[in-house]
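Re: the multi-chain job from yesterday

Posting the exact lines I submitted so nobody has to dig through the queue logs.
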Amino acid sequence: MEYILSPSILSADFKTLGDDIRKADAAGAQWIHIDVMDGDFVPNISFGMPVIKSIRSVTDKVFDVHLMVEEPGRFIDEFAACGADYITVHAEACTHLGRVVQQIKEKGCKVGVSLNPATPLSVLDYVLDDLDMVLIMSVNPGFGGQSYIEAMDQKIRDLRNMIEKKGLDVDIQVDGGVTADNIAHIKECGANVFVAGSAVFNGDIEENIKKLFKAMEV
Ligand code: DX5
Ligand code: ZN
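And the result, structure tokens for all chains:
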């Protein structure tokens, strides 16, 4: 299994966003996690298409776009056109989740579905076969710098079992409160894609990424 670090630029310094992304790229992060918030699905607003389009020229790394947006089906074409490689939508935000999943695939993007901490895995029962990734939120989405919710350990284990039972090849991404102190444990639970915002961008980006990779190897 491939283990991937996806730094969340929500915690980057926006006045030097391009430089921060270049540093994360040079330090070996395979993906760049891009949090889009609409002030409706989550109680915060971040940034949207123009920013994604602009930073697309900074790196060739995978753009992992996490849409915390109500009814994201309205904007799939636009996010695909900005250079998203993965588009992840929240199950809670889609009236017709299956339709949105197909829309993303039709655009040639990889598709992820995200679940808030309190959302049960059963919402995936009839859609899991179509997914490239499931994103388990390990904080209530909206802000960086929150603490990992321990109850998500079991949710990750259960999801890994569910994927294995069905014989699928689906990535498990974990987002929220991931640090060098808990990343090995989260990996042990069955996750293979790790989002980290404040643990990457607060302080020395290169040092932080090195630390996370080292901790991940254990
Ligand atoms: C939270 C976002 C996360 C956030 C993670 O709503 O989806 O991607 O940036 O930040 P940390 O790693 O600081 O918890
Ligand atoms: Zn995110």
